[in-house]
Amino acid sequence: MENTGGVRSATARAHSNIALAKYWGKRDAALNIPAVSSISVTLDGLSTDTTVRFDESLGTDEFRLDGRLVPADHAQSRRVVAVLELIRERAGLASRASVTSANNFPTGAGLASSASGFAALVVAASAAAGLDLSARELSILARRGSASAARSLFGGFVELHAGIADDGSDSFAEQLLDGEAWPLEVVVAITDSAVKAVSSTAGMQSTSATSPFYPAWIESSEDTVREMREAVLARDFRAVGELTEHSCLALHSLMLTTRPALIYWNAATVATIHAVRALRADGVPVYFTIDAGPQVKALCRPEDSQAVGDALAAVRGVRHAIRTGLGRAASLDVPPTDSFHSAPTAGTS
Amino acid sequence: MENTGGVRSATARAHSNIALAKYWGKRDAALNIPAVSSISVTLDGLSTDTTVRFDESLGTDEFRLDGRLVPADHAQSRRVVAVLELIRERAGLASRASVTSANNFPTGAGLASSASGFAALVVAASAAAGLDLSARELSILARRGSASAARSLFGGFVELHAGIADDGSDSFAEQLLDGEAWPLEVVVAITDSAVKAVSSTAGMQSTSATSPFYPAWIESSEDTVREMREAVLARDFRAVGELTEHSCLALHSLMLTTRPALIYWNAATVATIHAVRALRADGVPVYFTIDAGPQVKALCRPEDSQAVGDALAAVRGVRHAIRTGLGRAASLDVPPTDSFHSAPTAGTS
Description:
2 copies of one chain form a homodimer. The first copy, chain A, starts with a strand and ends in a 5-residue tail after the last strand. The first copy, chain A, has 9 helices and 15 strands. The radius of gyration of chain A is 19 Å and the shape is globular. Chain A has 349 residues and is α+β, with helices and mostly antiparallel strands. In chain A, α2 packs across α3 (135-145). Chain A has helices at 75-91, 113-128, 135-145, 147-151, 200-210, 214-233, 237-256, 267-281, 305-313; strands spanning 2-4, 7-21, 26-28, 33-34, 38-55, 62-65, 68-70, 96-103, 157-160, 173-177, 185-190, 286-289, 296-300, 320-324, 343-344. In chain A, the strands form 3 sheets. In chain A, strands 1, 2, 5, 6, 7, 8, 9 and 10 form an 8-stranded mixed beta sheet that branches. Chain A has a 5-stranded antiparallel beta sheet with strand order 12-13-11-14-15. Chain A has one domain: Ribosomal Protein S5, domain 2. The A-B interface holds A 212-213, 215-217, 219-220, 242, 245-246, 249-250, 252-254, 256-257, 259, 261, 263, 265-271, 273-274, 277, 316-317 and B 212-213, 215-217, 219-220, 242, 245-246, 249-250, 252-254, 256-257, 259, 261, 263, 265-271, 273-274, 277, 316-317.
C-alpha cells in the first residue's frame, strides 16, 4: 500500500472460481442478490491482479482492463464505479480512482473473469481506502459487483448464501473446506476465447422472464446446494461430481429454454462433454461443468489430472487445456508469478 | 391384398414425421397415452413399407426389419406382437402373422422409424385382417405401438391429442392442415446413423421420475401446443419456427436434467444448430428441431431448401442432408418408388 500526498493505492490478487452448484437469476437486481445459493471451488491457475489508486487529482474514475482503457459508459466501467462508490461511502473518501486490472486468462468468455476481477477490486480498493473489513464484509461488497465474486474472496470450497434479508446482509460467502483439505484439480478446456454474445447479467434477466422452468429451478436448487454441501464436507467425490454435472445441465437447460434461446455451447463443448463421459466409462472419475460460455471445466483427482488434461487437449476444437489446483483466498499478497500448484498440460504453449 | 387358403396379407406405406411441438412422457404407460399433446409434420422422404401376412400355418408371430429377423424376446418384436394382438382381437382372428418391414432411412437413430413403422403396421395389419377402420381408430391403434405413430396416419400438419379419458379413446391424431395447403420443406442433417444408446420409452420413464423440470414441462406444453396450432392454421412461418425451436430445446432440457443425463447431441448436432442460426442471421428463414437422437431437422420454405441443404451438408460432421417435402397419409397404395417431392441434396449419394 502506498499513501503519499493525495494518492493512496493497493494491489490485490484474486482467483477465479467455478460453481459446482450453480446460481442463475437474481432475487434483487439493484443489490445483486442471487436467487439461489451456490457452491464453488476457487481456481489457482486463473487469477486477476488489480491495482486501485485513489488520487485527488483525478476528475473521474478510470478503469483499465488488460492494458486498455474501458470507456466510462461501458457496462464494465459502470459496475466498477458502483463498487468504488460503496467503498468511498464507507471510507468517507471523495477521491476518484484509477483501477488497473489484468487477467492471466481470456476475459468474458465464461471463465468467471468478473468473479476474480471484482474480488480483487474490493480487496485492493478497501485497502487503498484504509478500510479494515472482514472477509464476510468484503464478500458482500464483491457480490454487488458480481455475485460469483463473493465466492472468490475465499479459497478452496466456498458457499455463497442467497439469504433472505431484503438488504442482502445475509447474502455472503464463506469457506466450506480448505483446498488443502481436499486437493482436487480442474482441467479447463478452452474451446473458444471470444467474448460471449450475451452477458450473464442480461441472460439471467431474460431467463427469469421467459423460461418455463425458472420457478422449478429456484425450488430445486435448494436441495442441490444442501446435497452438494454435504457431499463436499464428506469429501464424497462421486456425489460431488454427479451433482456438479446435474447442476450444470440444469443451468444450461434454463438457458436453452430462455426466449430467445441462450446457446453457449459449441461443437467442441459437446465433444468435450462426451470425452469426459468416455473417460468415466473407462474408469477415470472425472466430471464436467460449464458456465455461461463454451469452455468445459473437468473436476478430477490430482492423480488423474495429467491423463484428463491430455485427453481433453486432444478433443477436436479444444485449443488448449489448463490444469489447475484449488486456489487461495483473495489477498494483498501478490507474488510476481502465479505458478503455485498449476501446470500447463499437453497442448498448452 | 391377398386372401387365399389360410393366408391373408396386405402391404402399406407410412411416412415418418417430426414433431414441431414435442411430447415426452406418458400419462398411461400400459395404454401408451402421451402426457401432453403434440403437433408434427409428416415427411415424404422418410418412409416405411410393411407387409403383414396372417398365416394359419405359422406357430408364432415373426417380425423382420430391414431384412433381418428380430428375435421374439426383443422389445421391438414384443411391441409389434402387442399391436397384432389388438387387431386380432378386434377382427376375431387367431392366425399368427409374419411382418416384414423396411425403412428407406436409418432405424432407431432419432428419425422416428417407430412412427412410420407402427403406422404402416396398423394399416397393413387391419387391412389383412379384413377390418374397415376409420383413420381415427387406426391412429389410436398405432399409438399403442408408438405415440408418434398415431401422427403418421395423416399427411401434412397433424395434432395428436393427449386427451383426458382413462381408456385413451380421446388420445388420437387428426390433420390440422394438408401439406399442399402449406408446402414447407424439411432438411434432415444426418450426423450419426448409429442406433441410440437409450430408447425413447426408457428415457421418458427416467425423465418423469427424475427431472426437476418435468411438472413445468407438462404445464407449459399446453400453451405451446395451442400457440403452435394457431400458428399452423394462420400459416405464420416465423411463429411456427420460433415455437418449434423452443419446444425442441425444452425437450432436450428435460433430457439433460434427467438423472443420469440423456445427452443425445454430438458435436455436429451443435454445429448444425449454429449453422441454422447463422443462415437465419443472413436472412434465410429456417428453424431447427431435434428428437431423441443426434440428427438435426431444419424447417424451411421450398425456395430456400436447396441453399439450406447445401449449407447443412457442408457442416463438419454432417454425413449427408436429405431434403424432403411434406408427406401423405399412411396408405395401402405403395408405388414402386418413393421419389414424390423429395430430392437428394449436396452430400447425398
